[in-house]
Amino acid sequence: VSKTVSSFELVLKGRQPHQALTNWLYGELCSAIVDGRLSAGSRLPGSRDFAAQYGISRGTVVNVFERLQAEGYVSCRVGRGTRVSEGIRLTVPSATNPLCQPSYIRRAASAYKRPEVFVDWVVFKGRRPFQMSDPAVREFPSRIWGGIAARHGRRFPSWLREEDDGRGYSPLRNAIAQYVALSRGVKCDADQVVIVSGVQQALDLLLRLLVKKGDPVWTEDPGYFGACIALRNAGAKIIPVPVDGQGLSVSAGIKLCPKASGVLLTPGHQFPLGMTMSLERRIEVLQWASSAGAFIIEDDYDSVYRFAEQPVGALQGLDRNSNVIFVGSFNKLLFSSLRLGYIVLPPALVDVFVGHRRQTDFHTLSLDQAVLCDFIVEGHFGRHLRRMRDLYASRLAVMIDAGHHYLKGLLQISGVQAGLYTAAFLQNGMTSREAEAAATARGIETRALDRFTLRRKDPKGLLLGFAAHDEKAIRQGLGGLAAALGG
Amino acid sequence: VSKTVSSFELVLKGRQPHQALTNWLYGELCSAIVDGRLSAGSRLPGSRDFAAQYGISRGTVVNVFERLQAEGYVSCRVGRGTRVSEGIRLTVPSATNPLCQPSYIRRAASAYKRPEVFVDWVVFKGRRPFQMSDPAVREFPSRIWGGIAARHGRRFPSWLREEDDGRGYSPLRNAIAQYVALSRGVKCDADQVVIVSGVQQALDLLLRLLVKKGDPVWTEDPGYFGACIALRNAGAKIIPVPVDGQGLSVSAGIKLCPKASGVLLTPGHQFPLGMTMSLERRIEVLQWASSAGAFIIEDDYDSVYRFAEQPVGALQGLDRNSNVIFVGSFNKLLFSSLRLGYIVLPPALVDVFVGHRRQTDFHTLSLDQAVLCDFIVEGHFGRHLRRMRDLYASRLAVMIDAGHHYLKGLLQISGVQAGLYTAAFLQNGMTSREAEAAATARGIETRALDRFTLRRKDPKGLLLGFAAHDEKAIRQGLGGLAAALGG
Question: How far is B390 from chain A (nearest CA, A)?
Fold first, then answer.
């Protein structure tokens, strides 16, 4: 239904049903001028020709031209015809100074706080010791994963009509329920499992639901920075509770704030110090939560890797009272760009959580969920975990051994035998940040332990990732680190 | 390092480094009892045998047994040995009444509000007229999509190390930038594009960043329910602004609240009434936003389908002042379980938004992003849109034509020639809800228009989806609807 005015090659869009001719023509010409399709100075056909071209009465065209002239879009001079105004100032606002942003952007920018933990957070390109964000992706069985993905691709028509109630791909939820029951002692069935993109989305969604502005929540000090970010975004009052060799000190928490709404814990492998929460502390925290009606979010980010002994079971497995919400992720176990994790909810919280979650993104399906499901069900996941457990154990052993050799008197590597990284404590008098900066200057990536503290004073140490680095890289890195730390 | 006590087949986990023998043994036995691995009444070996089995001094074993006895875990009677207490009450709290939930769950449940729009929202199983949530998935070129997915699966190793800065798969962002520029007149480059799961996640993320508690925001009345949900969750004060034949009444908005922080609009195809916002209104709203420093979130959910004329360009294309944030989705264009949409941000907002977004889920990659990217770049997307535009136009024509035939005097189907659904207005005196209930009773899915109103009185009409239903289904559905509405 488009009509072209040949003299200026303008496509006018068809008229809407019920739209008045005058409004349509006015709108189309306005739009062409605003869009620049009719450029400044170009000539419009005479009203008589124009009317004939479009089969409109000449009176309508004259009306529109007069309106355009009155509003400054076109000008009309004897002998020059009707032309688009030169140097037309659009009625659409135009920023005179590009540096002058609208105030909503200035408000957002000033309200947005970059988390302090990330200030001067240097990430080197390439895989360098002792980066701790990735597992050993070179060891990932990518052919197997790719084969499953290709198979799911070919079977795509069946996936097309997958339905999701906000919890994610149902066969994957079954596989996860079995996996966490077997390997972590979590008590659950698939109905309680909700797929998310990882621990951070789990915390963000949970805390938005569970916390009202100003509600006090305990968190480990030092602790996982993502937990603090999610707590702050949810408006919680963060209650830093000190961590000792047995994990979070429940008695200290009770002294600080007995009526807290909940607590965020990493009982399997404390972030960043690495110890496991003792059974006594586990029972203490369950008792407190039960009497306070509080939630415990158990962040089980990498507890499945424990080298010297069997993994310690999940706190959730001891809970008889629906206090514990269990959160896990595959991103650190398989590869970081996977973006799949899960929440195991107490049965009574499932409906409310799913309703709440649907309000934030409606659905959660992705083809990756189907691929991961088969990867687990066909046994590849278990095999990969066992291979990585051996590999990481040997890499950690190299690190501890070489650490004794290179770093004696400078840095004491923690004896914790778990996870993808280890804490190491400075013996050379440097603060955590001084040591991190010295390492960075030599191209070695570490994380200062005091980045993860809240009230606690600097634990004077570094986090060193070992999982993604082979023996040679670890030895070289430790050599460099020794030089950086003044060895 | 595990040791088995054969007499009761108990696996004791290895001792942690630095853990005292007594603590270890106590913890292990506690744990076995709490876990039920040592069941009530079962007999422990004598302290002498036990000590010999584990190579521990008998004194240690006696100490632990005494501690367990003192705490009630085990009991000791002459002639019966040491046994796990009968009817042991775990020190782990146990809900006496399963209906008695912890208070954090009760608080979450009472704070959670099911959006009113969904109350009695009946969804029939199977594809029935006039469901409006899905496009015509039977027509989706699933072999082509599946072939691309299979190819990406085989190429998986390259994907394994994909990096993401929080905006999503970079080649897909390029493809989207080109698509929205060409088909919607959006002015942007790929740096401004952020991948999300759809319109709802876009609104949720944007409003959490842009709105502080109590900030007034205009929204269309009637309007998109998801917008109200996201506004409420962000704590905004919702300012319902009436919609007329030209779209949102900017002058009414200015009267109601001139200093609003922003506005949520569906200018391309107003939800639910279907009209396009006129150019005059577009310029009015841009002028208001510019002078108020306000944001305009342009929700372009299905504007690409316009049957009687070319699509109307995006409001974003007229913006010269960074007021407009453009939001779109592929879920309604391809298939609902895809879960991919995008935001086009003003350049000055990109860094802040990406920082904010990373705090909620860190990364956004998925294999589907790579598949969609090739689907667009290889031209399948454009072809599919053109095919669907023709198909939907013919289905809408059937609906209007058959509507005249079956529903004369009962229901007037709107003349709007766009989108995947149409509004229809009751002429039989029924309210929207009465009509919806009557249709539901005959197995016909419609949505009462008053579900989408805020202050506005019942527009007395229904939404009818046509995109996913063939001619026969539409005719049958309209016949049934006529009977339901008293024809």
Answer: 14
